[in-house]
Amino acid sequence: MSKTVVHVLRHGEVHNPEKILYGRIPGYKLSELGRQMAKAAAEALSKNDITYVVASPLERAQETAEPIAAQFKLGVAADERLLESTNLFEGKTFGVGDGALKHPRNWWSLRNPFRPSWGEPYIEVAQRMFAAVEAARDAARGHEAVCVSHQLPIWTLRRWLEGKRLWHDPRSRECALASLTSVHFEEDKVVSVGYQEPASHLIALSPEARTAKGA
C-alpha cells in the first residue's frame, strides 16, 4: 500500500509595518524573522523524503518554500488553489479588539459568520485546498510533498478533514507561523492529520503573531 505525506506549511512572518489585513495584495514579503522561520521549517523537514514542493503564488508563500526546495534540489511550483481566502476587509486595519466589529459600516459584511459573508465561503476554501493537497499527493506518490499556504485556508482544510464545522473563532486556530499541518495518506485515503511548530522558538518574537493580523 502506497503511503504519502503532504505537509501543508503556513508561511513565515511578513513585513507589514502598516499592520493591515493584506490578504491577496501583492508585494508583501517575509520579514527577516520570517526568513528565519522558513529556515526553521526547512531544517525540521531536512531528513524527510520530500520530492515535491508547491506554494501559493503570493510572495510570502514562495519565499517560505525556497529553503525547503533548495535543500532537496527541487523547484517551487505554484498552485492558485493554495491562495489566501478572499476578504472584503483586505487592505484595511481589521482585527479582533481594534473596534472594527462595532462600526456600523462593517455590520452588513459581518451579517453571517457561518458562510462567512465577508469573504470566500468556507466550504469552497476547504474543497480547493484539498484538491491542491491531492495534486501534491499524486506528484509525490509514495514520498512526501510540501504545500505552502496561509492560515485560514490551512485551518479550514484541517477542520474539514477532521469532520468539524467550518465556521470558528479565529482566536482558536492552531496554525502558527511556519507551522506544519501534515496529511497522511494510504493510497488515496486520508488516515491521519498531524501538527507541529518548528518555528515556535521564534514566534514569541513576532509582532504579527501577537496581533493576529497575519494570513
Notable features of this structure?
single chain, about 220 residues, alpha/beta, Rossmann fold, six-stranded mixed β-sheet, 6 helices, His_Pase_superF_clade-1, phosphatase activity, PGM_Phosphatase, Phosphoglycerate mutase
Describe the overall structure:
- This protein is an alpha/beta fold.
- It has a single domain, classed as Rossmann fold, CATH 3.40.50.
- The chain has helices spanning 32-44, 59-71, 122-139, 151-161, 200-203, 207-211; strands at 3-10, 50-55, 77-78, 144-149, 180-186, 189-196.
- It has a 6-stranded mixed sheet.
- Strand 5 (180-186) and strand 6 (189-196) form a beta hairpin.
- Helix 1 (32-44) crosses helix 2 (59-71) and helix 3 packs across helix 4 (151-161).
- The termini are far apart.
- The model has no long low-confidence stretch (mean pLDDT 88).
